[in-house]
Write a structure and sequence with these properties.
By secondary structure, the protein is an alpha+beta fold. The protein is built from 18 helices and 11 strands.
Length: about 500
């Protein structure tokens, strides 16, 4: 079995998909990473947590994130290549995820600014009123690398999984004097229709505890309008600029987090103090908009996980072909060679699952509420992919370290970094437990498993398909506590079954 494509993310994409659009431009992007980006990325990782300059020389608050100049050059390369503007120019998200895969092979952390910027732009384009879009969308979509960046801030100090209980950031409409007056005015607007408020200015007060890409010019932020009900139904989504209309800072950075990895994206704690904001969409749509943002990133997480898996395998392959033990390269020893074969097959399955999430997302990303059955099929596959590919990345990075032996533990060599980076992927945008429970919920409430089995039927092993259908239906019939307690096993097996069927789909297409 040939493993040559492991060393090239572009070659692997072409192996799996047959062709890649914008191949010349994307190959130039990869060539830059090989020529310069690798060294910049390694230096950024070694330098650790970026520095926060909070004040200027006169004591004025500036909250500037300080990286070396080469970092900003590295970051701009992806924006120039089109991680944002290509999605809107071509009305397809696929170019973003192609570039996300290529980027993550070299630096999974720097993919984070790209995907949260895309999520900001998508939310603004889909839910912002015309005046707000005209003001803020063009700076995000510049093609020369000077564009604004976005961010998506939901999580507060109490955690992120139960947003209905943990989001305490409040929002009040400019000019309203109390929560009761605010609520009464909302009810009077268009006979209770609150859609007219989408372009209004609001003030946000509160804080966010995990704010990735802190320092971004724009952020979409979950907050609770004054007078709104408790729980997730009371949340709304707001666009928050970094700079106020009077030129002052609109949000403040308390500190930058010292993380195990992803040092190429600054993560901080943010404070809102009567911060100017713009409501996106209707208030009652807030939780759906928030979940759309999260699902964009969950698909990105899957793509990044697969790219990291490939990179870890490439490092292990390069080492094992040169490390001599007992008279020959360790790659030629039957046990390790078989492990490479097995891992390569798992890599291809993981890619097939993650790419199907991309393909389905590209069909449904502009759908309004209420969503179609196709959208709920996307949701289920996205949860399966995020859960399963992140675990594959962590296990493969661990294995790659083992292939290196003691050398794999040394920070001076790259394989140690990929294990650190992989540890973040399981947590970002929802822990494995969250993906399992959300996957279970979309099957229970929306019957998404029925659409999944229909979707996979032309490609799945018939006997395995019958067995998996039976297992899922039996599981969904269990009492609630038993259903949740045993959900990891059924979701894990469903993810692997889905990945195998989707790999057959890709292989049939190639043949």
């Amino acid at each position: 079995m040939a493993f040559e494509t492991l060393h090239s993310p572009m070659a692997f994409l072409k192996q799996m998909l047959g062709s890649v659009p914008f191949e010349k431009e994307f190959q130039a992007y990869v060539d830059w990473w090989e020529r310069e980006g690798k060294l910049i990325s390694a230096a950024t990782d070694r330098s650790g947590t970026p520095w926060l300059r909070m004040f200027d020389r006169f004591g004025g608050r500036v909250d500037e994130v300080i990286f070396p100049p080469d970092y900003w050059r590295m970051l701009r390369k992806g924006y120039e290549a089109g991680v944002l503007w290509r999605a809107f120019e071509g009305h397809s998200l696929k170019p973003h995820y192609y570039l996300g895969f290529l980027t993550s092979f070299f630096d999974p952390g720097i993919y984070c600014p790209y995907i949260v910027s895309l999520a900001t732009a998508v939310s603004l384009q889909k839910y912002g009123d015309e005046e707000v879009k005209a003001r803020f969308l063009p700076p995000l979509l510049r093609q020369d690398g000077t564009g604004w960046q976005g961010a998506t801030w939901m999580t507060e100090a109490k955690g992120g999984s139960d947003l209905g209980a943990t989001v305490e950031t409040s929002a009040r409409r400019v000019g309203q004097t109390s929560s009761s007056a605010r609520h009464t005015a909302d009810q009077k607007d268009s006979g209770g229709d609150q859609s007219k408020s989408s372009g209004d200015r609001w003030f946000l007060t509160g804080e966010k505890y995990f704010s990735s890409n802190v320092g971004a010019e724009l952020a979409v932020v979950a907050a609770r309008p004054e007078g709104a009900p408790e729980g997730v139904r009371g949340l709304a989504l707001y666009l928050v600029p970094r700079i106020r209309q009077d030129g002052g800072l609109n949000y403040f950075v308390r500190r930058i987090k010292d993380k195990i990895a992803t040092r190429s994206v600054p993560t901080g704690e943010v404070e809102f103090k009567d911060s100017e904001a713009f409501l996106l969409g209707k208030p009652e749509w807030g939780i759906y908009e928030i979940l759309e943002v999260l699902n964009l990133s969950r698909v990105a997480n899957s793509i990044g996980s697969v790219a990291l898996t490939q990179r870890a395998m490439a490092e292990a392959l390069g080492f094992s072909e040169q490390r001599i033990a007992f008279g020959k390269p360790i790659f030629q020893h039957p046990l390790l060679h078989k492990q490479f074969e097995d891992r390569f097959y798992e890599l291809k399955k993981a890619f097939a699952l993650a790419w199907e999430a991309v393909r389905l997302l590209d069909e449904v990303w502009q759908e309004p509420v209420p969503y179609s059955h196709r959208y709920h099929l996307f949701r289920l596959i996205a949860h399966l992919a995020k859960y399963w590919t992140a675990e594959q990345a962590a296990q493969t990075a661990k294995w790659a370290m083992e292939v290196h032996g003691g050398m794999g533990t040394l920070a001076e060599f790259p394989v140690e970094r990929w294990l650190r980076e992989a540890m973040i992927l399981a947590i970002w945008e929802g822990t494995p437990q969250r993906q399992i429970l959300d996957g279970l919920e979309v099957m229970e409430r929306k019957g998404a498993h029925l659409g999944l089995f229909e979707h996979l039927a032309p490609h799945a092993n018939p006997a395995k398909l019958v067995d998996m259908k039976r297992r899922v239906e039996d599981h969904l019939a269990l009492p609630p506590d038993r259903r949740e307690a045993g959900s990891e096993e059924i979701l894990r097996d469903l993810a692997e079954f889905t990945a195998e069927a989707l790999l057959r789909k890709l292989e049939k297409k190639d043949s």
